[in-house]
């Protein structure tokens, strides 16, 4: 019971505080309560995202479901102007309950930030964007290749000009790190990955995994309602001897579904190299963006390198005339601005593809294609309703085990799936 006591004063503070909105210079785009003086400021806030989904022609997952996709609370602020902090806690099991962000920042260098603690690595613009601000309910399939990135404990440095940004960081394990401690399976023979293979995973803070992560962005065009962006991200990950396999997996862009249809184990990994090339453009109410990711996993014991790749292309149009809110100093999209009394309406379309097959390495995780159409209503700066319809195709999983295979996904997941899902999002 003692573990829950800390939450009582936080709830009281939230309940007694008026709604407020943090400015662009704060660490967060929205907060429920703010306290500020010349040497100290404090923000409190959070998010709730409630998802509802219906599946068509899906014998694997059933017909429908609902869940809290994210339920988070945060506190952030600055101390003596040169020091900052952010701590964010996730309450849902689907969001890997526990601390998401937990870091301190030093702001005393010109146009630069030094961050120490658990924060995001540099994988892609879509990954760095907050889920509060992305156009679609779920990120594209290629995010499966970010299995050893996302948020991790480390030290990073970022610096920027008016239209460019450079970042470099070194990271160790995540606070909720899981490592594959034993692996002797070849074929995924069931729908539950925890029992289908002779595989064991354990949660640890001593995985031996480390990542060096870098990012560079350039925005040659930036004016009101007009942006052109280019970015590149590089990541090198080292695996310790105790990591018997590297695991990459994803669902068909719905969090309500339980089974990750695309899944790949790479046995005896020694290191991983990833690169992401991305671009985006905004022209008034129209925007387009895309990214390509390549991943190469080197292996011990003379085993061949495994290579995977993915890409996406996405376009959106805001019917009420606003432009997407792009930040050229960091190369990210933020929440829509200038929302009128009737709210703002947005249409979006995305196609993405992920290839987790590498015949030369004897790995057959499958290929996935996904096309999603969405409509969003921004009621105000705190409330957004989202409706997405997706068609997912999973294929190219062998029905028999190829000679020399080291991993084969279950052919039952060669399937087509149609998904209709709705999200209610509340930021406070």
UniProtKB/TrEMBL annotation:
Lineage: superkingdom? Bacteria
Which Pfam family, any one of them, does this sequence belong to?
Porin_O_P
The secretion signal range is 1-22
Q: Does the keyword Cell membrane apply?
A: no
Is Repeat there in the keyword field? Answer: no
Protein keywords:
Signal
SUPFAM superfamilies listed in its UniProt record: Porins
Q: What is this protein called?
A: Porin
């Amino acid at each position: 019971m003692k573990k829950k006591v800390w939450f009582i004063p936080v709830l009281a503070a939230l309940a007694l505080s008026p709604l407020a909105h943090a400015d662009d210079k704060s660490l967060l785009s929205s907060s429920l309560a703010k306290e500020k003086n010349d040497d100290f400021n404090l923000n409190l806030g959070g998010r709730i995202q409630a998802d509802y989904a219906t599946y068509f022609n899906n014998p694997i997952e059933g017909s429908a479901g609902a869940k809290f996709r994210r339920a988070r609370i945060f506190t952030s602020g600055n101390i003596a102007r040169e020091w900052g902090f952010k701590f964010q806690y996730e309450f849902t099991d689907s969001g890997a309950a526990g601390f998401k962000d937990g870091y301190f920042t030093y702001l005393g260098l010109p146009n630069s930030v030094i961050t120490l603690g658990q924060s995001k690595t540099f994988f892609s613009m879509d990954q760095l964007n907050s889920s509060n601000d992305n156009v679609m309910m779920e990120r594209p399939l290629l995010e499966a290749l970010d299995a050893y990135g996302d948020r991790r404990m480390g030290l990073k440095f970022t610096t920027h000009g008016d239209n460019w940004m450079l970042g470099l960081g070194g990271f160790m394990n995540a606070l909720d790190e899981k490592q594959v401690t034993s692996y002797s399976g070849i074929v995924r023979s069931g729908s539950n990955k925890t029992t289908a293979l002779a595989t064991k995973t354990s949660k640890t803070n001593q995985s031996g995994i480390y990542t060096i992560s870098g990012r560079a962005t350039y925005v040659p065009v930036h004016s009101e309602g007009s942006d052109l962006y280019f970015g590149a991200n590089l990541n090198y990950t080292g695996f310790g001897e105790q990591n018997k396999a590297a695991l990459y997996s994803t669902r068909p862009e719905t969090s309500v579904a339980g089974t990750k249809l695309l899944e790949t184990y790479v046995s005896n990994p020694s290191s991983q190299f990833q690169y992401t090339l991305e671009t985006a453009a905004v022209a008034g109410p129209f925007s387009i963006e895309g990214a390509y990711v390549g991943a190469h996993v080197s292996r011990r014991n003379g085993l061949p390198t495994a290579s995977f790749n993915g890409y996406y292309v996405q376009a959106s149009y805001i019917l009420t005339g606003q432009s997407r809110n792009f930040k050229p100093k960091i190369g990210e999209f933020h929440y829509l601005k200038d929302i009128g009394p009737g709210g703002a309406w947005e249409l979006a379309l995305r196609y993405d593809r992920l290839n987790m097959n590498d015949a030369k390495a004897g790995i057959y995780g499958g290929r996935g294609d996904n096309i999603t159409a969405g409509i969003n209503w921004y009621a105000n700066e705190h409330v957004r309703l989202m409706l997405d319809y997706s068609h997912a195709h999973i294929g190219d999983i062998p029905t028999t085990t190829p000679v020399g295979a080291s991993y084969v996904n279950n052919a039952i997941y060669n399937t087509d799936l149609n998904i209709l899902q709705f999200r209610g999002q509340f930021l406070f």
